[in-house]
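Methods — Computational structure assignment.
A single polypeptide chain was analysed. Its primary sequence is given first, followed by the predicted tertiary structure written as structure tokens.
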Amino acid sequence: MVRIDKIEFDFFQSYGRYNIPLICKYIKDTPQHFIGFNHVLTHHNSQHCYGVHFYLDDYQFERIWTSPARYIKLLRQYACVLSPDFSLYTDMPLAMQIWNTYRSRLLGQYWQDNGINVIPTVSWSDERSYSFCFDGLPRRSVISVSTRGCVRQAEPRKLWQAGMAETIRRLEPTKILIYGSKIEFDHGDAEVVWIPARKITKVVNSGKRTAFLVAHPELIKHIAKMEKISSQDIEDFCQDVIVKSMNDADKFDPTKSSIETWSYNFVKICVKKFREKQQRNVEQMSPELEASLVDLFDFSSPCD
């Protein structure tokens, strides 16, 4: 067993030429409602009735790869989670497509190992991706796919239909959850459930401080800029603040301060914690990773 970034990888729980991690089949009932991962921090109304999907732009959920343990407790509250849909584009180098497939499976496996109900997500690009995009996926399971970006133009629609046919042939799914607009296709004996793309606009929060911070993200960003947090880290910082606010006791006392002042001081404390975490990440580069970088670049070799 080796450690890949922050998740342990077990060669005995992988499959295929590229050692794609295995995901167990999902045979439970599926929820009627799904929300995007970008809403899980602000949606706290009967989580056990909802599933979580990742049919979003990759940047909106890249943090689950960089900080996987942070979201375990949160995702465990939902009925199920679809494994991440890291992008596979036809014009993307094949190595990147394999890497994104690997990351999706590893996170799905990691979540299952931590008690989260995971529905496998199937993604493909063109026929070249068939050599790896089905690796690690279970047969005779509930699965999920998406039609995002494949409906309006003929070529993407044909690629989707071809990939869907190959999915059914190889995996023989019992039920297919399809996120997005409908595309005409014969899914054979599989039960098909179409999940319309929608946004969750209602926000329900358990604490006054969290409710205020969710409603006023500009406050967090203002403090981040004032404290000179780099622009590429501001989004992560905002997410850290909300997660910490949800997990920490909210002892707001209106007789002592306003909610604005209470929240402002809390964000200032989060700045210090965020910087400490960044420093730990820099200091905790594993010896294995360091050794692999040395081997990769072979610094001892003379320049030509």
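Note: The two ends are 38 Å apart (CA to CA).
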